[in-house]
Every structure is written in C-alpha cells, then in structure tokens.
C-alpha cells in the first residue's frame, strides 16, 4: 500500500510505550459495543523462561495492532484497551477474532475444548502465534480435541488470506529472535477444504506480536515491522470477512 512505510514511521512515536515484562497486570475488559476488540486467550502454564505464556507481548502488541487497524482500514477498532478471556467465558462469543500466544505450552480442559469447538463452528476465527519447532505438535494435538474431524493444512502465499488487505510480496518472514527458522503457515478449514472457510490460522516458527509490541522502540527494522503489521491486518480482515 502506498506510503505505508512512511506512515508507520510517523505513527510509531505515538504508539504505546513504557510497559515492562514484569508481573502481568491484566487490564479490565472493555464492554461490548460492536467495535473490533483484540481478544487474547488466557490459559495456565509457564514457559521455560518462567513467564506466563499467554501474556507474551501483552498488552502493547494487542493495542498497537488495533491502532493500525483503526487508522488504515474501515474496521472500527477499540483504541482504549483489549480483552482477555478464558475459553469458557461466554463473552468470548461476542468477538469474532481471538489470539493465542505461545501455544506450545497451551493445554485445554475438556470444557475449554468444547467451548472452542462451539466458538469456531459458529463463525469464530483463532490465530496462533509465537511458537517454534516441535511445539507445533502440541497445537495439532490440542486442536484435535476441539475439531477431531479436521486437520492442519499448510498454505502458501497464493492463499487469499495473504491478499485480503495488503498483497504480501513474500511470507518468508524472519523470526525476531531465531532468524534461522523457516516460517510456516497452516490453516484449519471447513471440510478440510482450503477453498472453504478458515477457522484457524497457525503461524509456525514466527512471532508477529514481538514486532507489534516493540514497534515504538526501534528494536527491529521498520521494513520487517511493517510486514508484521501487514500480516496482522490481513488476518483480522480475512477473519472478519470470510
């Protein structure tokens, strides 16, 4: 999109800054009013680094992507916060887009699995991000508990999700901390048919939210950060319109 890079450079100093990675303080959820709200799933468990896995990059990544959506698309995105839900929270069903961080450590209860199945079959869309290598096996195992009849299908740049708002020229996207990894993309589709509705988008060997979170600091190159935002915008637009 013309001038996107220049726009992002001008916008970055205005984005949220200053929240550290210490103990997570969960902000109150926003009341439903029809706006798009970035909804993140909270679950138990800790990574090998000792941090709570569900909250990696929270809340700045969530709020930064919402700002980009609000300013670049016709989506009315909430700018005053984001929401955090347990999978069994019925309020989750008001929000068509949910996000899971570090799903290599994610384990569902039976109630979680049943609720996620109902959510996805009713039209919800889930994105998995920030996990690497053999952690893909856990994502696959957990999703089979919710959708045993469906399986993950690897997708390439010709899938419409990569052209839903921004036309991606490449999806060979570097991991911010482990650039030697090759990014892979998987979808879960109705009837296991990539031409039908996508229920889940799975970013393997990738961490888009790391770029979103630190976009105001200059930690990562602007070009790569812009592409991370483009992918995030595409995911939301695709999930909201298909």
Key features of this structure:
single chain, 242 residues, alpha/beta, Rossmann fold, seven-stranded mixed sheet, 6 helices, 7 strands, globular, disordered N terminus
Report how far the terminal alpha carbons are from each other.
22 Å
Number of helices: 6
Averaged pLDDT = 90
H-E order: HEHEEHEHEEEHH
Largest sheet: 7 strands, mixed
- Proportion of strand residues: 5-15%
Give, in spatial order, the strands making up the sheet with the most strands: 2-1-3-4-7-6-5
Q: Please report the first level of CATH classification, the CATH class.
A: Alpha Beta
Overall radius of gyration? 17 Å
The CATH homologous superfamily is termed Domain of unknown function DUF4159
Q: What's the CATH topology name?
A: Rossmann fold
Residues in helices, as a percent range? 25-40%
CATH-defined architecture: 3-Layer(aba) Sandwich
Principal-axis shape equals globular
Number of strands: 7
* Estimated structural class: alpha/beta
The parts where pLDDT drops under 50 for at least 5 residues are 2-22
Kindly give the count of domains. Answer: 1
């Amino acid at each position: 999109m013309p001038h996107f890079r220049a726009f992002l450079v001008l916008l970055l100093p205005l984005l949220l800054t200053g929240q550290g990675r210490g103990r997570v303080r969960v902000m109150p959820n926003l009341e439903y009013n029809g706006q798009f709200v970035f909804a993140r799933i909270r679950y138990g468990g800790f990574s090998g680094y000792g941090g709570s896995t569900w909250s990696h990059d929270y809340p700045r990544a969530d709020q930064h992507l919402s700002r980009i959506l609000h300013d670049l698309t016709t989506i009315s995105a909430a700018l005053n916060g984001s929401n955090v839900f347990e999978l069994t929270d019925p309020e989750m069903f008001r929000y068509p887009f949910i996000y899971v961080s570090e799903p290599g450590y994610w384990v569902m209860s039976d109630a979680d699995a049943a609720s996620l199945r109902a959510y996805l079959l009713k039209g919800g869309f889930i994105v998995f991000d920030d996990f690497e290598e053999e952690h893909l096996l856990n994502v696959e195992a957990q999703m089979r508990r919710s959708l045993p009849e469906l399986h993950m299908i690897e997708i390439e740049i010709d899938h419409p999700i990569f052209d839903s708002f921004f036309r991606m020229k490449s999806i060979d996207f570097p991991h911010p901390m482990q650039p030697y990894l090759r990014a892979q993309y998987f979808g879960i589709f109705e009837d296991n048919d990539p031409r039908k509705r996508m229920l889940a988008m799975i970013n393997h060997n990738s961490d888009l939210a790391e770029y979103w979170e630190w976009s105001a600091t200059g930690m990562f190159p602007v070009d790569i950060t812009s592409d991370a935002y483009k992918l995030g915008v595409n995911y939301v637009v695709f999930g909201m319109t298909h």
